## 1
Amino acid sequence: MARSLIARVTAIAFGVELAFALAIPVAYLHLFNIERREDRALVLAIVGALYLVRTAALIGFLASLLRPIERWLAASHSSSQPAPDLTRRAARAAYDAPLLFPLVWATSWLLFYLPVTASLQGLFADRIPLSARAGEATVLFGFSCFAAALPLSYALLSWLLGPVAGRISLSARERDLALPGRRLSVRARLVALSLSLITAPTVWMGVNAYMSQIWTAQRNLAARAGLLADALEHQLAGSSDRTWEAATRALSTPLDVVAVATTDGAIIANSDAARELAAAPGLRFRLARALSRAPAETVLDPSAQRALAYRGIPAGTGGTFPGAVALVISREPGRDRGGELFTLLFFALVALSWAPICAGFLAGSIAGPLGSIRAVVAQIVESEDADRVGRIPIFHRDELGELAQGVNEMIDRLQASAERIRRYGADREQLLAVAARRAAELDAVLDNMVEGVFACDRSGGLTHTNAAGLRLLDLSPAVAVSRATQEPGTGGVGPLHPDGRPFSPAELPLARALAGEIIVEEDEVLENPSSHRPVFLRSSAAPIRDTAGAIAGAVAVARDVTEVVEFDRLKDQFIRVAAHELKTPVAILKGYSLMLMRSDQTLSIRSRRMLEAIDRGAERINRIVEDLLDISQAFLDALHLSPAPVDLDELARETVAGLRASELHRVVVQREDPGPMTVRADAARTRQVLGNLLSNAIKYSPAGGTIEVVLSVDRAAGEARTSVRDSGVGIPTQKQGGIFRLFYRAHTDTPHDYGGMGVGLYMAKELIKRQGGRIWFESREGEGSIFSFTLPLA
């Protein structure tokens, strides 16, 4: 099948063309009024030879265009798929050949008869004289042939190559290859073909009418010459040759030359005729040929625009030239309406047979793709399974091709959507199973939690409560859902704040969470209805939001921390009692050691150092006891401060002056702002914070150096800043995150571990925060640290 493509296309295309090509030489002969049999045979021989050469060249060109398609068809019938490059070249040939080859084909008809006319005018002008306007007429004749051949060849090639192009397009689509080829819209094709259909008969009728006028004028001219020749024949009958000159001169006119000639064409009377014959070699040639065949004849020379008629003079006429002829050369135009009507009717019949064939092929090239599109669309409408819908071949690169491509893309999207829906269905089933399993796991986890979990919808209705929550609510599972937005323990006395104030409904955690607030470990106090003992709860709550961010409900977690609170209370009591009991012996130790060092001047150096060590140990135990008391008060929120206006500069200098002297360190106070530095703070607690920071700076600067206390004021922020800067060992980067945590020691297990409980920075942070300030630090290991805190201006 692949090898028969070129033969099939060539046979059909040039077979259809041949039916019309046989009529075109007949039109050419009629157009130029070539009537003699031998002249027509010569013209047809030239046309036939040129047609064979032209057809062979066109077939070779068409074969070169269609060769990639042949190769693609051969490869598609083999076991392997055609290569992508071959598919692209075959698609380009299938789409470009119906556009390119008709132009070449029609152009060959435009130029075909120009060499025929040139040959007749150059080589056979004497034998077949043509009109002086033969060149212009041939161009118009070729243009009408071009306009007739263009739609016929395009319709043929589109009809023959459209199915092949459709197969190639489907193969390219399966391999995700872009379709090449020139795009020509249906509008442009219809306009071009319509113009061709109009132009072909119009140009032909115009050139035919134009040439008819020329040939009619030639025939009229010949008729006039024949009348004058008859008149001269009658006038010369019975006269002598001495009177012929006068007779010919008398009958001659400005458009007619009357003369007497011998049977071999020599002029006897009126030498003007000899000059006329010299100016028209074709006329002279045809005169000599006619004299040898017929005694009376009319001869035309369209190229010289002359007609010649001669009549034999009777043999009994007196004179020295027996067998002479009466000769007339005329220039009078005339018309032959019969020949013009014949030519017009002939080509009207040709046009009537040619136009339906072109229209049929053209309609097939448009209706075929539309039918394929309609069939696929009907299949989409009727079929429930999008996977079984086929694809539309793309016959042409135009609007119809784009429509087919759009339908193919729609089918692809339908199939992709169907596949996604199937996947979504499978995923949905899987997700539902996973969600059910996770819901069961979540229920099991919630039911085994110590904390009570409560969830409600946006209206406040309780939607979920675990077993611990039901125990807190003192409800049975049967009635748990019927309870509205009650909080844990609302079956008895309402919840109270730790300070004894009752909770209002708007203060309940779930109600506040429904308003968008997030509650983290807020304490509540309830009364156990059976034992009438306080129950301490610690609740957290948060809103539940949907995908749009709107609040869809709330969830709360409540934990019974009664034992923890009791333990904290007992621990605080223990710390208080232990601290009180420790203070007495520490005070006794410190007092007696100081008294011995002051009163007994006979103590040895060793004894004095031992007493000093006892004093330092007692002082350290005292500080530890005070730190434990402060931590206890901070945890119980019983750490009371007394803010008052304090001169920060004076407080800093007093704190520095009260430090224990160090031989390696120098502590200086610097002010960056000369104005007043009055802050609102607890003087004693602020002095405790600054002293703690200075003590750490001295402790972690073993090499000594200057420790700076820098004071500054930010009037815009309404605060004063105090910074303690040292050039000591610094804090390791990986340990800086927990520097303010309780009992955290950054230099544990290092050469710079100087002891301590790790409570100083924690208390410094608590004291500054409770006074409305901030505390932070900057440190580089091996370069020192800067600890800063702010206090609000008074």
## 2
Amino acid sequence: MREWWNRFRAWATGRPGIADDLAEELQSHLEMEMDSRAGRMSAQEVRSRFGNPTLIAEHARDAWGFPSLESFWKDIRYGLRAMRRSPGFSLVVILTFALGVGVNTAIFSVVHQVLLKPLPYPHGERLVRFGESTAKIHGFSVTWVNFQNWRQNNHTFDEMAGVQFTGRTLTGRAEPVTTTGLTVTSPYFSLLGMHPLLGRLFDDTDDRPASAPVIVLNHRFWQSQFGGDPHIVGTTLTLNGSPFEVVGVAAPLWEPWKVDYYLPLGRILGNMTDRRQHGSMRALGRLKSGVTLSTATADLDAIMRHLAEVDPSSESEHRSSGVFVAADNIGDIRGTLLVLMGAAVLILLIACANVASLLLARNTARSGELAVRKAIGAGRLRLVRQLLTENILIAGAGGLAGIAFAQIALRLLIAAAPQEIPRLAETRIDLPVLLVACGITLLAGLAAGLAPVVVVNRIDLTSALKEGSRSASAGKQRQGLRNLLVVAEVALTFVLAFGSGLLVRSLIAAQQSDPGFDPRSVLSFSLQLPGRSYTTPETVTGFYSGLLSDLRRLPGVVDAGAVFSPPGAGDNGDWFYSIPGRPAPAQNELPLSLFNTAEAGYFQMMRIPMRQGREFTAADRDGGPKTAIVNETFARTWWPAESAIGHQIKVGGPYQKGDLLEIVGVAADVKQSGLDSRPMPEIYQPFAQQHNVGMTILIRTVGNPTALAPSVRRLVRDRDRNLPLQQVGTMEEALGAGLARRRFSTVLLTLFAALAMALAAVGIYGLLSYWVTSREPEIAIRLALGARPATILRWTSLQALRLAAAGLAFGLLGGWIAARTLKDLVFGIPPRNPATMAAAALAVMVIALFAAAIPSWRASRVDVARRLHSS
């Protein structure tokens, strides 16, 4: 013991902070030495020579790593002193932890709010939305008759309500206001647990055809349009020219859909008796406790089969199609968020690998201190406990900084994300998220501290205590473990770089894809004519024809046209059709097409090429032959080897009543559902034969199209002061908005990849710096024997490249797996894209060389004389 004490005194000279700490360790060890001798004495001798045996047992437990409360606090105090002695090192590790924990906390808070948090309704997990279905199509509208049978005869629902959207214009105020309402049956309010803030919600007496027109206002609409007027109940609002009495204001409640008010659905549809008459209604229901979705579907299907027996019709093959509201609300955003969550986890793993490498380097520098602790009797568990305590303390500091970073990142995330992501605006770092953040911090601290703990027991005591010795720091096992950590960092970084590369190329491919028309310098806006004012086809066509003529005369206008569903607007209308003369398909296999309405001259104005035939003309008028223009996809489907011109289309099934349309033209495919979508079959009918009250007006200009908006508003107001313009904007903006979600995920994953590359660069730099420092004597000898600095530079650079190459080998396997995960987010290129893999590998190699540059340069400039003299 005296020999070890002399070595300790020699080593601790100039290290007063560490000497004080180790003095405490030595005192505990000497007590433990007496305790070990006491184990061979009788109980009487122990009590007489060493006092309380309980105290002796506590010293023994502490020496073997089983702490008392007092020694636990000693470990914490020592860990805090260690952080204070190395502020630069501690700051780097804390920031690295903060990045990993912060990114994961921010992304998880979004995942928790959007995917995991239950809906704020009574038994929201049992809330289901139902539609009708066929063998090919699922979830289309429910007829009023079928819904009534479902509601009255089912055995699997507590309650069921019908819901249908409506768009109406609010007039009688300073400016007309476009509104979105929800027509519902009265059980809707109890399904969602809604309560009145003012007045009442409507009930079954309001939900009948002969009832008085009443309206319940949404809380947000009441606040924004009426300033929260407490006397609003009892007043009358005018929607599309019809009066509605306000009977209540609903208390604030988040809904999956954004609406302004509620109207009774039974008052509108209650007189319908035709089971085939579809609108846009869906059924909303809450399953009984213990009932599964498949059981409920089978229950409703049994009702549909019974209806087919008692009332056979063309829809006898229709069945039900249900989805949980929570899942339906999330839609395809689930895949995007899970990919981002996976990327955040990879960032955390890279951060942990970086911290583990830094801790290995620090423990190498502390090998003398750790050797003394082991020499004076600290057991294996004692050293492990001390190191883990230090790691968890520093991880805790990083976790606190990470939560602060997550608050900032979350605000930026919400501001940048597409607003259609449900419940995103309500995302907060609440208690469950904080608990997860604490768990992430603890696991990260343990994971990062595991590598240093593994090698701590292989310290060479003799060489570690020799002044100036580096043999302990150059152990092959420790160096090999740091190499392995850097290889893992490079592999994970490659996976993120490859994933972000795929999304970047997909975004570029979508932006550069041909939309099928020229969107430049085109202003668009929508109008909805109220039925009470425009009651005949002549008044509808007269209004739009006159407005288009006026618009074409405005200065700077090249042309103007009208269409029901403009490009990029999505599926705003589809229906069944059949081809006369072809074998009749089964009722549940009827083909489906988009149906659109276009004014004469629309294709020329939008510069949509006509592949065959002609555009609509004045000859395609009301009362004349029914005509249609189809897109290329439709024509190729039915007439791949011949012209489609002159063939006929029947609206509806072969045994249904429907118009026969003669094809007069084939237009180029248009990206109707966005730039990253594939064309569907589409049928255009002439506006003069359809008379849609709602149309989108498109104006091609010679300059900035938005500068024309005030003039357009004046023209519309001159024709009808009660008509508001809806969705005013340019076509380029509309197409860009369709890529908002793709752009969001691409930007975020690219930022993650950049962060991963920065962390990997730090890891490679730190490893190579350590490697150069530990091998300075060898480098000095090589230089002394005639090696050139360029040779040393190449030698050290190859060390970094070998590690990067090994990481890329594993990363290629991870990228191959990641491509399958990302396939639903990739557009225009194959997911397993060799060019993208090569670009990602090149980027990682460049980062590795950049990180290795400074240590390699330093290695080539070693002072040979000084280094050999000090050795």
## 3
Amino acid sequence: MGVAEILQHIDREIAQLQRARALLNGSAARSSTKPAAITPKKVKKKKRRLTPEGRKRIAEAVRRRWERQRRASGAK
């Protein structure tokens, strides 16, 4: 028995237990008759990237913030 077969067997058992739990909770009417497909793969989220212009704007804003802080601490 391979790993894939074991995972499919576990997924079937999970679906069966979820249906039994729904019946015991009285929510069988709300649940679908077909169990939801369970995929063992994780979904990769799309990585967000900054443009060079955006990175430059952020750097400039941070420099302005640091300058304000230096001025405020020097005035005290």
